[in-house]
Amino acid sequence: MGHSDGDHDDLSADDSPWSEDIWSDDNEGSLSFEDSGEGSDAESDETDALAAEESDSSEDEVAPRNTVGDVPLVWYKDEEHVGYDISGRKIKKRDREGRIEAYLRNADDAKNWRKIYDEYNDEEVQITKEEAKIISRMLKGKTPHTNVDPYPDYVDWFEYDDKGHPLSSAPEPKRRFVPSKWEQKKVVKLVRAIRKGWIKFDKPKEEPNFYLLWGDETDTADNKRQGLSYIPAPKPNLPGHEESYNPSVEYIPTQEEIDSYQLMYEEDRPKFIPRRFDCLRSVPAYEKALREGFDRCLDLYLCPRTRKKRINIDPESLKPKLPSKKDLRPYPRTCYLEFKGHNGPVKSLSVEASGQWIASGSSDGTIRVWEVETGRCIKVWKVGGVVHRVAWNPQPDRHILAAIVDHDLLLLNAEIGDEEVQMRTKKLLHIEELAPEEEETGDKKPAVKWVNHDKFDGIMLIHHKAVSTVEWHFKGDYFTTVVPSGDSRAVLLHQLSKKHSHHPFRKLPGLPIAAVFHPSQKMFFVATKKFVQVYDLQKAQIVKKLESGVREISSISIHPGGDNVIVGSKDGKLCWFDTDLSTRPYKALKTHLKDITSVTFHRKYPLFASSSEDCTAYVFHGMVYSDLNQNPLIVPLEILRGHSSSDGRGVLDCKFHPRQPWLFTAGADSLIRLYCD
Amino acid sequence: MDAGGASDSSRQVRVRFVTKLPPPLRAPPTSIAVPADLTRLGLSEIVNSLLLAASPGHQTQPFDFLVDGELVRLPLQEFLLAKGISAERVLELEYVKAVAPKKQEDPCPHDDWVSAVDGSNRSFVLTGCYDGLARVWKNASECMHVLEGHTDAITSASFINRGVESEGRLHVVTGSKDRSLCLFKFDTSVTVPKQIGAYKILRGHTSSVQSIAVDPSRDMICSGSWDSTIKLWSVEGSEADGDTVSVKKRRTNSDSSGPEESQFEGSATSTFLGHMQCVSAVTWPEQQTLYSASWDHSVRQWDVQTGKETWNMVCGKALNCLDCGGESSSLIVAGGSDPVLRVWDPRKPGTLAPIFQFSSHKSWISACKWHPSSWFHLVSSSFDGKVMLWDLRTAWPLASVDSHKDKVLCVDWWKGDSVISGGADSKLCIASEIGIV
Lengths: 677, 437
Fold this sequence. Notes:
The structure holds two protein chains of two kinds. By secondary structure, chain A is an alpha+beta fold. Chain A has a domain at 5-62 and 94-139. Chain A is built from eleven helices and 33 strands. In chain A, a hairpin with a 5-residue loop joins strand 23 (553-558) and strand 24 (564-569). Chain A is elongated, with a radius of gyration of 65 Å. Chain A starts with a helix and ends with a strand. Chain B is mainly beta. Chain B has four helices and 36 strands. Chain B has helices spanning 3-9, 40-54, 76-83, 239-249, and strands spanning 12-18, 31-35, 63-67, 70-71, 91-97, 103-104, 108-109, 114-118, 124-129, 134-138, 142-148, 154-159, 169-176, 180-187, 195-197, 200-203, 209-214, 220-225, 229-234, 264-266, 270-273, 279-283, 289-294, 298-303, 309-314, 319-325, 331-336, 341-344, 356-358, 365-370, 377-382, 387-391, 399-401, 408-414, 418-423, 427-432. Chain B has a five-stranded mixed beta sheet with strand order 2-1-5-3-4. In chain B, strands 6, 7, 34, 35 and 36 form a five-stranded antiparallel beta sheet that branches. In chain B, strands 8-9-10-11-15 form a five-stranded mixed beta sheet, with no helix packed on it. In chain B, strand 24 (298-303) and strand 25 form a beta hairpin. The radius of gyration of chain B is 24 Å and the shape is globular. In chain B, 47% of the residues are buried. The chains are: A alpha+beta, B mainly beta. At the A-B interface, loops of A face loops of B.
């Protein structure tokens, strides 16, 4: 029936026949009930009607009773009826029961509280207990029906971890494990869009197309961008009170002050002299206008258009970090002793190996031996010629003094030490006359002739030309002399025990100046004017050639370790060579104003010194490390003054005490000074 | 005294003068107020006037003042400020006689530099000279004896018996640069033989003998030398043994000294090795210990019996002189190649810092000596030509003697109240009447 019809209708349309069915059913039910309860009072009739209403849950069921619609009932206030029923008849208002009546009824009937007056239909409706309960629950804000639980416990139907059996026995599909193809396609699409520029992330900044017309010109950030180097003019000072046309009296200089300005230098004079005018009208034209305009133009024309880079560097920080002088003690500082006695410039001095005596040679023709501890002269040889150089034999039991007197070399017995030593020395300084006779046969004059010197009981080595320096080998048997003008026989080696001389160095790069032995190995250093040649004596070959780069070498000294050489030059430069490092100077110290006369190393302390014609001697700290990676440390320590100049010559020689940190200096003022720590 | 004027200008300090001097020099122990800007001179004047008031016959003399064991060398106010002493309380000023030489005796001329001097005998002074002769001066005026024997300069000389008990006979040892020590014996009562030869020569050093010292029991000598050894010699020793040696080694040129004199040679009984350089000074204060100073910058203490060094101190300067003294003769004073005289206390553990430093000299210090009886007083001589007297209680010199024209090489106390010094001007100078109690 209706079921089949309503199949294609919507849900609400589908519902109506059902309700009609029920409605009809109910009607029948209520009818039957009415039948059974016929003849009852109006009240029962009403209850029937109520029951009939009650059975119907829909509100529409009540509507046919009063058909006035949704109008305010006030309209029927004064009428006899409240409305019309479905057939158009008036529904009469019931009589109003009095208050007493209502009270009595309330007292009589226990169910009376459940009665509600229906104004619309003008009747009293009694609600059931269930309905009352629902109302009371709704008033309390609960769900209307008691058997509805709004917060039931959550039942996780789909948990299957703890369960014995999974909800589904299907294996995990492959797609759970492989990356999604579609996602990848989408990503590729986006990537391509980004690459081609279809998608842009940051929008380009909008450049303002306006600018501060009167903005600060010194803001160079903008100017830089233009590529031009913009140099803002310096800001003039703001005018003060004194520049007013009528300044206060205290600004006006007195006539005396104005006069005193004339005595000042032009740069120091004040640029502006305040003046008073009664009114602005009387202010004259600016007198310097033309001049300043011209200057301004000149400035613009001549102004060097360069930006001055100011660098704020503390000059102290540019100095190399050197250890403090205090930490490098001891070193010679003050002169405590003077050795007086010579009558001419002391040209050379030498300290005996134990440090008890020193010997000095002077141009007054004497060689003197001094006691170090008291400064007493204990021996004088009057050799009669200018003594250029003296050198003690470095062996402590051979008190032999080698001295260059005029052209030749003199070996002297110093006659100190005990008898045994003196006897040995005497024997050493005696030569048999026969040996040198045979060598006379050659047509060339021999380089050296060994001759007994009777006057001083020594040996004279007569060279073919003037000798300039003499140096001992550290073992005290060999010594070397340099004959600067000797050509191929310029550097000679002598052996004291055999009284034999030879000249192994035939070819030299220039005039030889000095020659020294290595302090411990069989090496030999020859200093020519510009170079230092290092020879290996055993292999008889040149090992190294050091280039000094100075004008003329005057002296040379070897570090006791043997790997470092210092060289003093005639232009006041001192060069330190580290022979392991390079053949060029490791450091060149331009210290002296005049020629360096002598340089020397201390044998025990890390000290070296240089003496110069400018009457000073410099003492340096020169630490050589055994670690090959560490360069020598050179620190200038002290300038030793005290000698006075004589004939333009200053300090002629300096030597360290072999055991103490003391320096002896020989001066042209015929003094020897001892500087102690 | 212008007390009125002084009180206006400055504050006053209440002082009480105390002293350990004998009664005629004892001032009344009442406290008096004195101006706070008084110096030593002013205080001395006050004490003198107090003493004069007590005994009219008092002779005015200078005094030195001690506050808490420190000599007052500043105006009183400054001194109190510097020491942080409150000027509110009564200040106890102890006064002692001022130590300064009052008289310079005539210098004794020598032929050469005077390098050694010994004043341990009360009536004789022994000097060593660079001409190789030692001289004995009686009462510091006439040269009694000339002691010959050395061929080079004498560096050190000492009396072996210095007491009065052997007045008749003097026993002397000298050390020289000719590497030997000579022993001399002579009679002081006989004045005729002026020249005396050595009766014994001690050889063994291979270099100059630099200093000698005699032990307290007077039968051992120690010597320090440039060969960096210290040697011990016995004075009398094996007389017979020495005799046999002398027969063999008698020098051929000894006939000049006269046939009646025999000369013995002795050798060292032991040698102390340890110093690296010249042993420049030795001193033998106690029987068992001797001290040595060296150019290797060290001061060493040696045990005489074992010959081992028991204490070693490095001071950083080459040392020239050394002496022991002070309280229980345990302080060491040494000077050397700088103008500072330093005093060490070897009993102080863990530190090598000097406890006193005196630095008024201008050049190397050549000699220093403690006063034989006073704990506080020192004398030092320097190459700047000055002899200075020091008190441990103040850093300023008590007095400076300027009698030498050249380097002073040696100095010693004599008779407790004089200072004798020899120098490179070939003079022996004597400054006497130094008031050390």
